[in-house]
């Protein structure tokens, strides 16, 4: 089973949950409902620790190198990530209500009617917002004070959290999602959820193409280069990311293709690895669409101020995503619970919907890195003379 990737296991879990849910007796369904309850309690306990363990050292890593080029790159990456989220929200508010029928909107609530055999409360050490604020304060503090002791401590804590996700969370996610769809099938609502998912995935696929087009149109216009040629040159990086679902594994290809677009070696070597961590427009678009979908299905609030808050905070939290299995969606669990009020069941639907198209978000991210590098290269030439830039390149 270890040789099977996470996405195939999620798909198998959904299919098995739908098939078995039609024939399994209620007592056996409640066994999995009980497992889901305990697992959701454990996941709720871990969410604040995941935030502190991943976000704190990530902010410290970015902030320790001050400089004009770094600030410019981070600013552009953050702005583009926010723009992708707003595009997804705007598109979703117009289209999604017409794609989600009233029967599907009751699926999550009906799936919760089956009760576990017993309940085990595992209270979190901190609530989500306290963990987020603590991460920002400590991370920025480490960046400005350059404290090696605290930095090493949180780096080691990040290793513990990453190992916990790899060993205790990711392997059990398919079983957790199996239990969710088993319960929904037993109550007769899984079909409506699957239909909604299929429609939303089609919209997300179109949106990720739109994001790539506007990124390269802006880059091409700014650098006075053919935007379509720039985009075509990045296709090998897109296809590599589509196959690997990893921004880090695609860096060599992204770097090579970025240089083919005329970006200098120094700028490309600085921007590509950095943007692989902080530029997540594709992931933001998917998470926003998925979150809005679950809000509509679950009857949760989804007004613009609420989602703007969610998008702006998520853009920071996702800095912790690269290199972590289930990366962006795991980093998003904090804002999903703390800002949008997602229940464990809603989080499970988010995970299933997001992972179903994980590679497309990664491909959008890394391809867009090439567009940002073209813009940065136009603003900062090789002989910029910025000491902070040279230091940042050396660290990368």
Q: What does this protein structure show overall?
A:
The chain is an all-alpha fold and 396 residues long. Helices cover 78% and strands 0% of the residues. It is built from 19 helices and no strands. It has helices at 6-21, 26-63, 68-99, 107-111, 128-145, 148-169, 173-186, 190-223, 227-233, 235-244, 247-260, 265-278, 281-298, 304-317, 327-331, 333-338, 344-355, 358-379, 387-395. The two termini are 36 Å apart. Residues 106-112 and 385-396 have low confidence and may be disordered.
Rounded to an integer, what's the Rg over CA atoms?
Answer: 21 Å
Largest sheet: none
Please trace the helix and strand order, writing H or E for each element.
Answer: HHHHHHHHHHHHHHHHHHH
Q: How many strands?
A: 0
**Low-pLDDT residue spans:** 106-112, 385-396
Overall number of domains: 1
């Amino acid at each position: 089973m270890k040789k099977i990737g996470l996405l195939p296991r999620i798909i198998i879990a959904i299919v098995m949950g739908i098939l078995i849910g039609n024939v399994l007796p209620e007592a056996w369904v409640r066994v999995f409902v009980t497992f889901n309850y305990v697992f959701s309690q454990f996941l709720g306990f871990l969410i604040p620790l995941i935030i502190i363990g991943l976000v704190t050292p990530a902010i410290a890593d970015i902030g320790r190198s001050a400089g004009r080029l770094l600030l410019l790159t981070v600013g552009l990456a953050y702005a583009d990530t926010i723009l992708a989220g707003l595009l997804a929200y705007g598109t979703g508010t117009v289209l999604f209500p017409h794609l989600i029928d009233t029967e599907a909107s009751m699926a999550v609530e009906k799936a919760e009617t089956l009760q576990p055999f017993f309940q085990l409360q595992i209270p979190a050490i901190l609530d989500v917002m306290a963990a987020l604020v603590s991460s920002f304060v400590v991370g920025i503090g480490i960046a400005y004070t350059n404290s090696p002791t605290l930095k090493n401590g949180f780096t080691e804590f990040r290793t513990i959290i990453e190992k916990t996700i790899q060993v205790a969370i990711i392997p059990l996610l398919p079983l957790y999602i199996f239990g969710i769809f088993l319960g929904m099938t037993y109550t007769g609502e899984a079909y409506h959820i699957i239909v909604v998912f299929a429609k939303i995935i089609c919209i997300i696929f179109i949106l990720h193409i739109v994001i790539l087009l506007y990124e390269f149109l802006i880059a091409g216009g700014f650098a006075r280069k053919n935007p379509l040629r720039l985009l075509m040159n990045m296709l090998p990086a897109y296809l590599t990311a589509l196959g690997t679902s990893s921004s880090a594994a695609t860096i060599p290809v992204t770097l090579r293709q970025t240089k083919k677009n005329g970006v200098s070696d120094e700028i490309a070597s600085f921007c590509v690895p950095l943007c692989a961590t902080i530029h997540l427009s594709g992931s933001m678009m998917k998470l926003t669409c998925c979150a809005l979908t679950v809000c509509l299905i679950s009857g949760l609030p989804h007004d613009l101020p609420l989602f703007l808050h969610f998008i702006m905070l998520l853009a920071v939290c996702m800095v912790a995503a690269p290199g972590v299995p289930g990366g962006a969606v795991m980093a998003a669990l904090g804002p999903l619970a703390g800002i949008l009020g997602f229940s464990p069941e809603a989080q499970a639907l988010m995970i299933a919907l997001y992972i179903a198209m994980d590679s497309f978000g990664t491909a959008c991210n890394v391809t867009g890195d090439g567009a940002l590098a073209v813009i940065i290269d136009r603003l900062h030439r090789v002989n910029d003379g910025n000491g902070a830039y040279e230091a940042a390149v050396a660290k990368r």
